[in-house]
Amino acid sequence: MSADRSKPEFDAPQGPAPSELVIRDVIVGDGAEAKPGDTVTVHYAGVEYETGEEFDSSWNRGESIQFPLRGLIQGWQEGIPGMKVGGRRELVIPPHLAYGPAGSGHFLSGKTLIFIIDLIDVA
């Protein structure tokens, strides 16, 4: 089960940051498919595209997290639907689908972000 999977390693990105959302399935799951508006249970880690510095990881906290997709950044709202339980997906999210342009008040504003997400459950 994906809840037992270990924390992922991030490959260093090549080239300039993309201007649009990039979705890549690392492992295709075989469970229920996430749909827009679902509540998802995930493990995830996120790094900054430019520096590779990790800014958040549910693995570091030792527990998965559950939340409704509609409450998340746009890149997650667009990037998780279609994913199946048991899967692992990488999302590369440009600033306009994350925390907005530099100076928007969030410490990650203006940054392209890379997330690796394990989908554990959908409701």
Automatic annotation (TrEMBL):
<keyword id="KW-0697">Rotamase</keyword>
<dbReference type="GO" id="GO:0003755">
    <property type="term" value="F:peptidyl-prolyl cis-trans isomerase activity"/>
</dbReference>
<dbReference type="InterPro" id="IPR046357">
    <property type="entry name" value="PPIase_dom_sf"/>
</dbReference>
<protein>
    <recommendedName>
        <fullName>Peptidyl-prolyl cis-trans isomerase</fullName>
        <ecNumber>5.2.1.8</ecNumber>
    </recommendedName>
</protein>
<comment type="similarity">
    <text>Belongs to the FKBP-type PPIase family.</text>
</comment>
<dbReference type="Pfam" id="PF00254">
    <property type="entry name" value="FKBP_C"/>
</dbReference>
<keyword id="KW-0413">Isomerase</keyword>
<dbReference type="InterPro" id="IPR001179">
    <property type="entry name" value="PPIase_FKBP_dom"/>
</dbReference>
<feature type="domain" description="PPIase FKBP-type">
    <location>
        <begin position="37"/>
        <end position="123"/>
    </location>
</feature>
